[in-house]
Amino acid sequence: MVCMITISLANQKGGVGKTTSAATFGAILAADGLRVLLVDLDPQSSLTQSLGIDAPGASMADVLGGSTRGNLALSDIIKPIKDGLDLAPSDIDLAAGELGLVQRIGRENVLKNTLAAQAAKYDVCLIDAPPSLGILTINALTASDGVIIPTLPAAADLRGVRLFLDTIETMQDAGLNQSLDVLGVLVVQFDGRTLAHGQAIETLQAAGLDVIGIIPRGVRVQESAATSDTLLDYDPTGKPTAAYLEAAKGIKQWLNEQS
Asked: Does residue 149 contact residue 161 with C-beta atoms inside 8 Å?
């Protein structure tokens, strides 16, 4: 790959595995020798906290201009996580940063321009987008080459996927990132013994949506978030990890197609 390729993990609904998926895919791609940058764009900073980083005063809030502490370059806040894997952390001040972005000229492209400065240093950037349809999520989508939509296998969540796809279409109709590629839907917390979960997969496929992966439910997925380890390190032989490794094959194939 000649330059950094950016993928957002995004859905306007919370609790659908965006953070765990970003961290796990990042660790998998880094283990394969790629240089990966994780960007925590959520003011709740779940990704930052799950990786054991405390970043007050040096977070995306300071980079995007919403902090009263002054602006920093993206390179000033990046924290190493493990070989090949770095993090641009978040903190709660990013909530104020979102309000500040609304007032800026070219507000949809602020993150895209920010990431461009690091494009030569990384192969892949994975953005953990906030659970909203606000300007931070629009920035993530505008900055991305592709998007993965994590979801739970429930009827209400599938309606949310449709709403999110409508948002992408509306964004593109407005002239923003018309080349954005939807890699597919990532189904998490799947239980094959539950009839409704199987029906959810059928519903997604009947709608013509690509299912990039199906991640089974597992308690160790939640446990890993409290250990500062990625799921790949915490439970390398578990069924959810194996499912993420399988889903990552599709991501790697897509990445190769972009080069």
From this structure: yes
